[in-house]
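Ticket #4471: complex job returned nothing on first submit. Input attached below:
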Amino acid sequence: MNVEITGLTRRFGRTQAVAGVDLQAGPGVFGLLGPNGAGKTSLLRMLATVIPPSSGTLRLLGRDPGGYGPRREVRRRLGYLPQNLGYYPSFTVAEFVEYFALLKEMPSFRVPAAVGTAIERVELGDKARSKLRTLSGGMLRRVGIAQAIVNEPDLLLLDEPTAGLDPEQRVSFRAMLRDLGQHATVIVSTHLVEDVGAACTQVALMDAGKIVFHGTPAELTDRAQGTDAAGDAPLERGYSAVLAAARSVAGARS
Amino acid sequence: MTAATAPVTAPRSWRVPSAAGPARLLRVELRRSPMLWLLPLLAAAFYVSTYRPAMDNPPFWNIRSGMVQSHTMLVFAPLLAGAGAWVGSRDGRRGLVDLVGVTAVPRWAGQLATWAAATIWAEALYLAGVGVLYGVTADQGAWGGPLWWPVAVGVGCVAASCAVGFAAGERLPGRFTAGLAALVVFLALAGGAFAIQDQVTYAQIWPLNVQGPWPADSYGIFYPYLPDLAIAQVMFLAGLGAAALGALGWPAGAGSRWLRGAAAAVTVAGLAAAGTGTALAGTARVEANGMVIPALHDAASDRPTPYTPVCAQGAVPVCLQPAYRADLADVTTALGPLLSQLAGLPGAPVRVTQVAVTTVQSEIENGIGFGGPAISGHPPVLYLPLSGMTLPGEGNTPATSFISSLRQQYGPQIVNELVGLPGGTATVGVNPGVGPDRAAQFAVAQALEQVLNLNGPSLIRSVPPGARGNGPASGGDTNGVSPSSAQLQSAIQRFAALPAGTRHAWLATHLAALRAGRVTLSEIP
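Support reply: We reran it on our side without changes. The output follows.
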């Protein structure tokens, strides 16, 4: 398993962002769904080793990232696209991706080819020499994806990757996710259930810091049966049904 | 986005970082460092603050070397601190802290690469400016060779300014950090200037301080340039920069425990170096050849630099240090008439030799003044310091101004020396030691100055209080009664009106008695 989580929590002051998550994920595309404030980004930031967990155990790629050495090894094999991606306006697309390839300690001789491949995969080949300040929001998002995949990561964490992409790009992106998921563990945090339906082999639904559903997209769809959950698509109705059930249980407990 | 163009081949082994990675990282940073945008401004600042003023000065290596330290850093240090802060705050301002924080390269190493790129550009521009200035100076035929210690201080100051600014920017990322960093460094430099004026000994470490209170052309010509203060300054600046950069490596996310320990060690070593440099500067004292720090001083530096003087032959030969070769004709023009008048007189100089500036206690210039010409030795030699004088070409000073200045400033002093007025280096009229017994000496000196046009027409205004009586015009003499102004004026006019030959002959026979105070006013022809 590339990701093994047991009883993971994260607290920011008095706010419990992640409240005891258990999760295991191997190669494949894993969708992380949930409403705003459900704890998806906090969970993803812990997986990306941005922040340490408050409690619980976390193993990534067979390593415990609590120690500096293993964490550094994990980071070499990690790709991460944060929700709000900053950029250096004066860098070109190629330079930005190369910069992160080097920061990920890719072997120097492999960097030029890897940068070219990553840029081509996000269909920015013709913009490789363009300064980032000249790109649109959607293009910048694709640059962010390129830097995340440039090291051909074994663990790829994408926080709202399709935000700002047009429908055509989203279709391409989902295809790319499926391809990446053949060898790597790809965890995609998103609001968009259609992304999950199209690309993910596994899906988890988070609410109030906990995982309230874990299964395949088909199983999530099935949860809508026999309910009057709202939604335009079957997966959306499943999503709504699971959330409604989880909240009614939580309300009854409280 | 395409799924099939390049199949994912995820590495299955833990990779070991290659040594070429940091070099490539630095190359990317060099290509896109914001410092590049600042280079034109820095070049303009160098031209305005250093190059143009340097060209307004004679081609002396020490003057121009001092400028690349003091003039340049006054402008560069605040600018570079601001630029460093801008570069250091980049990730914070751009919202990239998370992303660069989860990469394998230790955060501290990445920050050092960013700082290094900015600093390399700044150093390159600084050294290019110094290269141009030194090249032009060499082309102008300056005597001796370039001084590198001021450049070393400049290099250290550039790096330290960038480092301090970078650390400030990294810690407090914001759009105003750069301006604040520049302002703080500027105020620190201004504070250093005030501290030096207040004679705070430790303030000698001030990076703009070249050789303490010495005039810029007094060191590095007659004696080797003393690197004592520069060494302390380099220690201080290197320490300051290291401490600032080391502090970036402390946070938990900066790197491994070993790396953070190394960062802490760098910080401590930097603080120790900065403190040691400051402490050493506190022990600096002014010597004839510059600032001496006993713990760093090499006694070999105290030996005068050997040289073959350049001389102009005449009634009295004038010999200058070869660095002043261009000024030989002007010095001869300034002092020639005076020397011709005095030639052959007992005690008159048979040769003029330029010497290094000497210090005297003074109420001005932070307690240190600079001595004037002095006649001594057998046969007598006029030892002439030119340091501290405004030389031709310095600040667009014309040769005529230098000649006039030299004649009027040193001429009376030389005459006073010759006739035996005390304090040959002091200005007549303010010397409290002149009394009635000096009236004849004073009158002869004033007459000679009038004849040689050394002091201008208003001679009587400079009669010393002790030499001018309040009594009637028929008043006293060396019997203890002070002569009146009229008597003095009369003697001066009388002696000045003599034909040159007669005056010279009288001086030849009476100069010894005049110098001994045995000649009265009435005995002056």
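Chain A touches chain B through 57 residues (CB under 8 Å). Closing as resolved unless it happens again.
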